[in-house]
């Protein structure tokens, strides 16, 4: 039986990861600050550890993760800035302290702005307006690149509570935008690339359920996603909607 250790199980994405893992018959362990926030069906079937990631010692996180096949971090949000960077640093350091034979495959979460926009290697986080909010994704990626962990970094656009499309319908990319920009992008300055990038974001607004499925379907050691940034987009021609992103995009344009 596959075993999974999950942090962030009370959040929107974490709840889907937990539910799908249980539905697949996996052994689930979750670390939470407040058990009261767990969905009843998760609390009833998971092994629950009381861990506040904001103050937990490295040894406590390591003990929680050790011996599992998979570790998934859905904790923290990019708008927390340095606090989010510190969280990923402490989780990565804790996992690195686990013995190699007990160390799980690790999934972390970033965003589409971390993906290369063109062959020059320019990233979404290099663009004006985007950089000021999403810079922690770059720092977390650079931290993982220095790590010996078997990690994968999911880089979706905004996520929404909608029915799953299903893996076979998604566009999935490695270290590239799944909804590519036109080739002319490479010759344009960043201020002109920004609205082009903004226009692509609706194609990368995916259901939480699909984001969870991508991670759980690619949890075997050293598969093609190992140590890669993973982009996800809706089927070609389809766009998602999220009110918060729409307002930001209008401002960026």
Summarize the structure.
InterPro entries: NAD(P)-bd_dom, NAD(P)-bd_dom_sf, Polyketide_Oxido-like. The chain has 253 residues and is an alpha/beta fold. It has helices spanning 12-23, 40-43, 58-65, 82-96, 130-145, 190-200, 208-216, 243-252, and strands at residues 3-7, 27-32, 47-50, 70-73, 105-109, 151-155, 159-160, 171-174, 206-207, 229-233.
Explain what the structure shows.
The protein has 253 residues and is an alpha/beta fold. The chain has a single domain (3-252), classed as 3-Layer(aba) Sandwich (Rossmann fold). 34% of the residues lie in helices and 17% in strands. The protein is built from eight helices and ten strands. The strands form two sheets. The protein has an eight-stranded mixed sheet, covered by helices on one side. β2 (27-32), α2 (40-43) and β3 (47-50) form a beta-alpha-beta unit. The protein is globular, with a radius of gyration of 18 Å. The chain starts with a strand and ends with a helix. The relative contact order is 0.14. Residues 8-168 form the NAD(P)-binding domain. One of its GO terms (molecular function) is oxidoreductase activity, acting on the CH-NH group of donors, NAD or NADP as acceptor. This is NAD(P)-binding domain-containing protein. It comes from Variovorax beijingensis.
């Amino acid at each position: 039986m596959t075993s999974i250790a999950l942090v962030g199980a009370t959040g929107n994405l974490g709840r889907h990861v937990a539910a799908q893992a249980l539905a697949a018959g996996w052994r689930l362990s979750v670390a939470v600050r407040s058990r009261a926030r767990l969905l009843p069906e998760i609390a009833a079937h998971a092994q629950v550890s009381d861990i506040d990631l904001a103050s937990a010692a490295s040894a406590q996180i390591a003990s929680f993760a050790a011996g599992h096949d998979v570790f998934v971090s859905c904790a923290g949000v990019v708008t927390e800035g340095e606090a989010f960077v510190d969280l990923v640093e402490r989780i990565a350091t804790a996992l690195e302290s686990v013995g190699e034979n007990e160390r799980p495959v690790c999934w972390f979460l970033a965003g589409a702005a971390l993906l290369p926009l063109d062959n020059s290697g320019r990233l979404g986080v290099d663009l004006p307006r985007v950089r000021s909010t999403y810079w922690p994704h770059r720092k977390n990626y650079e931290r993982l690149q220095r790590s010996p962990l078997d990690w994968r970094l999911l880089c979706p656009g905004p996520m929404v509570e909608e029915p799953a499309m299903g893996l076979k319908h998604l566009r999935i990319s490695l270290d590239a935008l799944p909804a590519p920009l036109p080739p002319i992008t490479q010759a344009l300055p960043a201020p002109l690339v920004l609205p082009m990038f903004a226009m692509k974001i609706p194609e990368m607004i995916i259901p939480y359920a699909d984001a969870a499925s991508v991670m759980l379907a690619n949890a075997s050691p050293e598969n093609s996603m190992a140590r890669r940034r993973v982009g996800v987009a809706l089927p070609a021609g389809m766009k998602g909607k999220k009110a918060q992103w729409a307002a930001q995009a209008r401002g960026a344009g």
